[in-house]
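Project standup — Tuesday

K.O.: blocked on the structure for the chain from last sprint. Re-posting the sequence here as requested.
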Amino acid sequence: MTITTSKLEAKSRTSSGKGPARQTRFAGLVPGVVYGKHLDKPFSIALDGKALRAAIATPKKLNTVLGLMVDGTEHMVMLKDYQLEPMTKELLHADFIAVKENEQVKVKIPLVLVGKAVGTLEGGILSQMRRELEVWALPGAIPLNIEVDVTPLKIATALHINDIKLPTGITVKAHTNFTIAVVTAPEVEKVAEPVAAAAGAAPAAGAAAAPGAAGAAPAAGDKKAEAAKAPAKK
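H.V.: unblocked you, prediction finished:
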């Protein structure tokens, strides 16, 4: 299998550490290191930061296989990690892993939900719980993304990693059957309680007036009681 690689030039560095790395940056280059289980030992390199950004400016981004040319020798590598300056976002360091055509490499693949979940047609809410999946794949068979069909999902049901069909040659070594997507029931809005009658509103028909209320006419029985208490006229 012939693997298409993005070409990148670099030169070897004979020394490592903070001091030499600082000198490399002062010269306008980015310090880096290449490692891999089939290499005798890791080796240090220096390369152009803009050239690296251009090399991985492909649809696969960090999963792009690179043909790294170092002092006349080409190495098949992938960008494994990098460090940026927090403020300027300038590339400060790059780590590459050497790969082989017939050996799987661990990569993270974006998960893309496709289809229309039947639960959403009933008012349910579809939520994607995981955006990427860590898998093992051959360098030449790394997919751009993994599509996950959510059509069968009903309300209160979920889709797990064991439920999806992975592309040929892709292996997942996770021990947990984690959730990828779920459809939840819509939230029921609470009905507002009736607003209490405003203060000073007229009482309902037949309701007794509050004791001591200003302007309230006394009842007939109250008039007789007041008359009995009043002093007799002479």
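K.O.: great, moving the ticket to review. Residues 137 and 169 are 6 Å apart (CA to CA). Helices lie at 18-26, 49-55, 118-121, 220-229.
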